[in-house]
Every structure is written in C-alpha cells, then in structure tokens.
Design a protein that fits this description.
It is a single chain. By secondary structure, the chain is α/β, with parallel strands linked by helices. It folds into two domains: about 35-115 and about 240-330, Periplasmic binding protein-like II (D-Maltodextrin-Binding Protein, domain 2, 3-Layer(aba) Sandwich), CATH 3.40.190.10; about 120-235, Periplasmic binding protein-like II (D-Maltodextrin-Binding Protein, domain 2, 3-Layer(aba) Sandwich). The protein has helices at about 5-25, 45-50, 55-65, 75-85, 95-105, 135-150, 160-175, 180, 195-205, 210-220, 255-265, 270-275, 290-295, 300-310, and strands at about 40-45, 65-75, 90-95, 110-125, 155, 185-190, 210, 225-230, 235-245, 290. The strands form two sheets. Strands 1, 2, 3, 4, 7, 8, 9 and 10 form an eight-stranded mixed beta sheet that branches. It has a two-stranded parallel ribbon with strand order 5-6. Helix 11 (about 255-265) packs across helix 12. The radius of gyration is 23 Å and the shape is globular. The termini are far apart.
C-alpha cells in the first residue's frame, strides 16, 4: 500500500472512531464532548452519601462516561438551596413535598424516583419508653409521655432535611404539634447530619428517627448500639429521587450530564448497584431499587405506597416538568 493511501486510511479510521464515540455520547444525551471530560455537581442528602453508596455509583459511572461527578452532602433542605443558588447541576434527595416545590418554582426538571427504603425509630436496647413493636404514631406518643416524666430523650435532626420533614409528618399524624414539642426539655435538636445525630442519640441513650441505610452502616461499624424500635409500615416509607436543575432558571447548569446521570441511576446497571450495595457487609439491603417495581408493579402494595406518597398528580414527574425527556417515564 502506498504511503499516501495509508495516510488516507488512517484519517478515515480516526474519523470513524471519533464519530462513533461522539455518536454514543449523543445517544446517551451527553453531548459532543469528544475526548474532553465535563464536570457534574450533585447536591445530595447525607443518608445517601454517608453510607458509601454514591462512591460505588460514581466509580462505575465515571468509568463509562466522560463526566467527573462531585457530591455536595447536606440535609435535603440545604441540598435544594445549593441547587437554587446555582451551586449544583442536580439534586438527589428524599422529601417529596420539597421536591414538588422545587419543580413548581421552576428550579428543577426531569424528576426520577430511583430508590427507597424505610425510616426507623431507633433507641436504647432496653427501650425505657416501652414502645417496641408499636405502630409509629403510638410509639411517638409513648416517647412523649416518657420524655415528660424525665425517663427518656428524643433527638431530632432539626435541619429541614428529608428525615426531619418525615419526623414532622409523623408528629402531625400522631396528633402532636412539633412546634410546641421542640420547646420541651426532653426534645433535643442536633442540627447535624444523620450519622452525627445517631451518635448523639446513642450517647444520650435516647430515641430518634433515622433512615435505615445510615442506621445499618453505623450499627455494623460499631459506632452506635441503638436498636430498631419501630421499623416497618407505610408511614415510615422513604423515597429517593433525582432531579436535574432547569437550565431556563440556571443557564450554567450542566443539564446534559445531569440527565445522563439520572438515566444511569435508573438503568439496569444503576439499579443493580443500588440493590447489591452493602450485601457483603450488612444484615440487609441499605437501599432498594424502585424503577422496575414502579414500571412492572412487581409488588402492587409497595408500589401503591410509593405512588401515594411520592407521586404528584399521579405521576413521578408531571409532563410539564419532563423537559422533552418523556422517554424516562415510559
């Protein structure tokens, strides 16, 4: 083969490879990055970050796509505030009422439910309030009565996180006014993330509400000795969602990369990472995948709980917030 012909073939092969890579990028919604990498900032809740799940997801995602992921860990309220002020490209949170406000405010689009687990009321193994095995509302009433007698303490995150939001919902469901309870001596606010709140609760031999993922990790690692007092039931459902920041609101947001990351979380590979995370170390799954459950209704009762708790007008993401990505909800 002549040198000139060889050079032509090298150029042709290079172009084919380049278009192949670029085509794959476009197919997955990333955009024409070529060989350059892009940055994606995800503002997320401490319960996902502290367990190590996001590290496992990040490793697999970055190996596949030209995107470097950076996580900002905080309570859901603060995580959403970061995105609202333009410091994040997407959020991963667990407070449906706050998520709906985020969508309606024009801050977010393309919401996708990716996982769930359950909250748990945890406390001392000897259960001084005598509420083990009760339904959540009865357990809270029992803790209030014991607290007022000086027999126990309740530790609240008090930080506008998803866990704190759930706690306030549970107090309301028990017919109690959280705003009044917080002024009582037995009610303590930590103002910290879930892990630190669990450690404070352990030190005080108190009760608190925790997401099951963080509780299992801290208990297995020997950081706390608290026991699960109440850990089942629809009222304790905890649903995690991913939402991209709306470029109309924040033009600098890396929307394309956010959509790719959300699609990865919802993909078979992403859902397997969620399902398998921690099985080699913990007594049970820290998080459970939600996509197939909702798509195929594999457990109709549980799927119904999620839809009732975390859907908006019967949809995980109403059509006006899908931003041209209806394929995510088929």
């Amino acid at each position: 083969m002549k040198i000139g012909t060889l050079r032509i073939w090298i150029v042709v092969i290079g172009i084919v490879v380049s278009f192949s890579v670029s085509g794959t990028a476009f197919y997955f919604g990333i955009g024409p990055f070529n060989r350059a990498r892009t940055r994606l900032v995800v503002s997320t809740t401490t319960s996902l970050y502290d367990t190590g799940l996001l590290d496992a997801i990040e490793d697999r995602f970055e190996a596949r796509y030209p995107v470097d992921v950076y996580f900002i860990s905080a309570g859901t309220g603060i995580a959403i505030a970061y995105a609202q002020r333009g410091d994040a490209d997407m959020i991963l949170v667990h407070a449906p009422s706050s998520e709906l406000a985020f969508l309606r405010g024009g801050y977010g689009v393309c919401r996708k439910i990716i996982a769930y687990n359950f909250f748990a009321i945890v406390g001392p193994e000897d259960d001084p309030a005598g509420v083990s095995g009760s339904v959540p509302t009865e357990a809270l009433i029992g803790i209030v009565e014991a607290g007022r007698k000086g027999e126990t303490v309740w530790v609240s995150r008090g930080d506008a996180s998803g866990t704190h939001t759930k706690e306030k919902e549970l107090w309301s469901g028990a017919g109690l006014d959280w705003a009044e309870l917080r002024d009582e001596a037995w009610y303590v606010e930590s103002g910290t993330g879930m892990g630190k709140t669990l450690q404070i609760t352990d030190e005080k031999e108190a009760y608190t509400l925790a997401d099951m993922g963080t509780y299992l990790k801290y208990h297995a690692d020997g950081l706390i000795s608290l026991a699960v007092v109440v850990g089942t039931g629809e009222d304790l459902l905890n649903v995690y969602s991913a939402i991209a920041v709306n470029q109309t609101y924040s033009p600098e947001a890396n929307f394309d990369a956010a959509v790719v990351f959300i699609k990865f979380l919802a993909s078979e590979e992403g859902q397997q990472i969620i399902e398998q995370f921690g099985l080699d170390k913990y007594a049970q799954r820290l998080f459970l995948p939600a996509v197939q459950l909702l798509r195929e209704n594999t457990d109709s009762e549980l799927a119904g709980w999620i839809r009732e708790f975390a859907y908006f007008d019967g949809q995980e993401c109403p059509s006006e917030y899908q931003n041209g990505h209806g394929e995510m909800y088929g």
